[in-house]
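Troubleshooting entry. Yesterday's outputs looked truncated, so today I'm pasting the complete records for two proteins to confirm everything comes through intact. If either block looks cut off, that's the bug. Protein one:
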Amino acid sequence: MGDAGNIEVRTGGRHWDWPMLLTTMALLVIGLATLAAATAAPIGDEISARVVKQALFMGVGLVVMVVFAFVDARVFEQVAYVVYGVVLVLLLAVLLFAPEVNGSQRWLPLGGFRLQPSELAKIALVLAAARWFSTRPREDGWGLKELVQPAAMFLLPMAALTFMEPDLGTTLFLCFIFAGISFVVGLRWRTMAILVVIGTIAAPLAYQFVLTDYQRGRVDTLFAPEQAPKGKGYQAIQGRWAIGSGEVWGKGWRQGTQGRLKFLPEQHTDFIFSVYAEERGFVGSMVLLFLYFGQMLLGLLVAWNARDRFSSLLAAGIVTVLFCHVCINLGGVLGLLPITGVTLPLLSYGGSSILTTLVGIGMLLSVSMRRMGSERL
């Protein structure tokens, strides 16, 4: 037996983290069932092609997850900068070759599959930052001047290319990832205070001079969606209405009127939580949040018990990615944050999102299987 909260089963000298595996599988099952409801026709019980495609991506993702689990985390450390460079090239290729869809360039067509490199950028940034910080421990914490170099090397190139797509949501997401890893390695209190002040000053300036009219409209909708109930505020209003109509126990699977009758735009991607909450109600929503919270807590335990500094930072970075996904998506759906297009992990439709999330969980499993105090491989 191992650490509290982990059930270990010896398999060829390795210790499977069954709580992490079971939590992930539960979220995948919920995601597929909710997608089936979100893509169902108003009349009939046929399964849509999107559900079949998502199930295929889940199957491939699970295989990749298991493969990554068996790869020693030291291999991830060795290839971290190479992965970062490859993803950087893919982001540049998006700007040069990707077709424009709804005013943005985000997907590279690869046969019958569309690759979204900005999803891969999240894992690539975690790998590169984890390797860089792991070789430079600072007992007295990191100051603002010391953070300039890693931010310029790793965050700035990816954030700039992503912003040019344009994809403001993922750009901010990458900033949050870097901030999370910086916090884990240790920031001085003075540095954190300065960053808060800079963020407070920069936010209104960015709103006025950096954001496009479309992006400013997203921010305006956050504070007053009722001013454009049939325009920019329609999605936010319908999403909250769907959540509230679920009440305590929900309306039942495929019984939600907002989702089934297609009142809710993008309900299979950004707003899939609204479909779930309408059908499962407050109780079901709490179960889902408990699963996400449990998955992140298990990830933090993996980071705490990691055998070396890189593995610990890698695990903490992946937990940061999951945390940002859940908070940004639910914040937009609940009207607490602007709607950014960030997916809800393991629930929202999208092959790149599913594969990237399962790759990250595979890395968590790799660190967990070789944690401090377990048998070295």
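Protein two, checking that the full record survives here as well:
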Amino acid sequence: MPSVEDLIAGLRIIPVVTLHDAAHAAPLADALIEGGLPIAEITFRTAAAADGIRVLAGRDDFCVGAGTVVSTDNANAALAAGARFLVSPGVNPDVVSIAQERCCPVYPGIATPTELTSVVTRFGLEVVKFFPATAIGGLPMLKALAAPFPNIRFIPTGGINAGNVTDWLDHPKVLAVGGSWMVPARAIAEGRFAEITDLAREAVAVSGVA
């Protein structure tokens, strides 16, 4: 499997998953693979996150990362479970440090020039999460942030869906987008994995990556 960043750059869509039962992790991964998206960010919004990551970490056909990593406890639990990348909604310097010490890609969320300046100058990051993308000004805000930082690329997340994903992906500074529209929590909980495969296929087709 290619490096995490190369995989993200190639797929251009990261499914953001809320998992309530670790038993759903394997069939979810199978559904996403069949739909053309062999990657997921499992959020630390539920108690099943670490176990779900652990189920998938040993697979060579799927790349699993951890999202909503807001604390060092989250970071350590995610890395212990085998997460291949960490994503945060904001900037916790301790989380970024832990990831870098473990040579794990980390994408903290930024929403302001000050936050972006901080992660660039302190940690040398070249890819960051842009969150909450739609609520804080959408593409005009991203373009304004990107202008003074020509070497930075973004992973917008928050309000991305099938109707606007191509607008985001058309911007040259967008490495990929994060979104949950192809992995609805209710479909996962109810075991409707064929639906998730169809939604993933549609997302890939709309993105133009296929």
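Both blocks look complete. Sanity check on protein two: Residues 31 and 197 are 5 Å apart (CA to CA).
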